[in-house]
Amino acid sequence: MKSELKELYKYRELLYMIAYRDIKVRYKQSIMGFLWAILMPILIVLSGVVVRYAYTVVVHSPMKMSDIASVAIKSVPWALVVSSIRFTCQSLFGNRDLVVKIYFPKEIFPIAAVLACLFDFVVASCALILFLFLIKIGWSVYLVWIPVLIATITLFCVGVGLLVSAASLFFRDVKYIVEIFLTFGIFFTPVFFDIHMFGRRGEWLMVNPVAPLLEGLTDCIVRHQSPNLQWYLYSLMFSVTAFAIGFTLFKHLEPAFAESI
Amino acid sequence: MSDVSLRMEHVYKKFRKGETYNSLRDLLPALTGKMFHGQELDTGERREFWALQDISFEVKRGEALGIIGRNGAGKSTALKILSRIMKPTKGEMIVNGRLSALIEVAAGFHPDLSGLENIYLHGTILGMTRREIQTKLDQIIAFSGIEEFIDTPVKRYSSGMYARLGFSVAAHVDPEVMIVDEVLSVGDYVFQQRCLERIKTVIKSGTTVLFVSHDLKAVTEICPRAMLLEHGKVLTIDRTDVAVRKYLSLSKDTFVTDEKSSVYISNVRIRDRAGEQSKFDSGQTAWIDVEVIAREATEKLSVVIWFKDETQYIIFHTSTERLGFPPFSLKAGATYRCTFELDLNIAYGTFQLVTEVHRYDIQKGYDRKEPAATIFVGSSTAVGGAVNCFPRLIESETVAASSQYCEV
Fold first, then answer.
1. What's the confidence (pLDDT) of residue B339?
2. pTM of the predicted model, to two decimals?
């Protein structure tokens, strides 16, 4: 694995170039590109607000601005997870000319797809930061957790992305299965709701490795407290393992790519 | 480093025909079937075939090796293994130095990006660094000859422009080993010549080149040595003209005689003054001998011959009857022989000779040999197209604009 990672590093310029290409093509019409980056987060936030509103009606308590902030903070990274897994899934198939004809480490495609989505994430985050600033969310030292949490999310996306991109090349129905998981995944992830709403049962939802990371973000931005360390380590372990397995499997299958497309 | 640039040792490659399980929906039931009912999984072993068998060869630094063979002989598979896109099933392979494959010249292009952006993209894909591309940018653009359209998205390019830009980038990679697979088939004649020149320069500068093409003239011109592949095996590695002759004689294998027809062509050969030949110079005289044998008595026959080029286009045809010889009749067991004398005023290329015994009045063909022979015509003058008009440039001058036009 070490020598393969070294080779990937040697090809880093190509990685940036492919990611740059994906971004450039998407942002060719700059307004459309910007809309694309914030469209999904905005839709998620709006549906989250609807769900939250129903909740406040049931429990007879007014809706707070921090509730909306919490939904917004979790929507943007969730959009990153969904779009990067969706794009990685097609990344090898969409570049089949290159996969079949020219040699270079092929994991560049799924990783570049995640990088391009990360760019969208940054654009959307700018809008989010502006919003948080306007509602005067305040700040604390716990904000240093943000880069750590986002890095972990990215690692998770790359790991899963490597797996699904290789699998979708060999099994044509993988992309439909992935799509179903991405559509319904939001109901098993604390985006519209917070874990504490479930009381003790909330622990069960934390088994979803994305949950502790999203909760962690709300913890350090809205609640001004440290994320749950145990659950964070669980997510980190999960992401590292996903990456290790995804990368190893990907490299193992790589020589067969050209024959199975 | 040793002076060996490329080496393949006993390389085998196995492929499966068709798909086995390409969706989980098919695979999972099959797996459970195996678990509970002991059914065998269809691993596709019965449909396997060897695309390459026991390929061994060596190319020295700075050498140019041509690879020729019919479609499906394994040329592209061999190149894909060399460029590490595929792994051999068995065998060893060594490549010393940076390798650049000109397999599909514009594979790395993105249609929505401009020509300039695609130079960077494609260059990086082919292994150049950003700085390298920057220093060579002007050369690349100049070579492609599409300066004015460099900021246009390449989706608006013609396929020729596409290929030219792709080749220009690839030709400037400065690899130590360059693989060229059938890239010259695109672009116009001038550009093809320019590509050939570029490849020759690259060879002169010490780059090892593997050249795959159906254009036997180009192979002969570029490579002193060539490898002939047939059904995934190396038939010969020899001087290019020897390999080319062997390649051309391969097509004789498809000589089929119809067992049932009342008349059949028993022998066809094309020869020059010295004897049977497959390589001719443009303008040379050739003789075609045809022998026809009758199983039953048959009337009013003629022998028709024609040449087809690589695109199956018939460039020339004639027959005994057209040449003024009356239709002949044969008794059972009788033999008929004729000889055509031709001046091969053909431009360079590979041509197939087809012969047929034909009865004109009822439009009936009795037997056909297709191809009866394949010939390769070479030309010392650079001419293109189907015929050689033996051009000579007898006057060439530049006239300065006369003063009355200058005032405008």
1. 93
2. 0.75
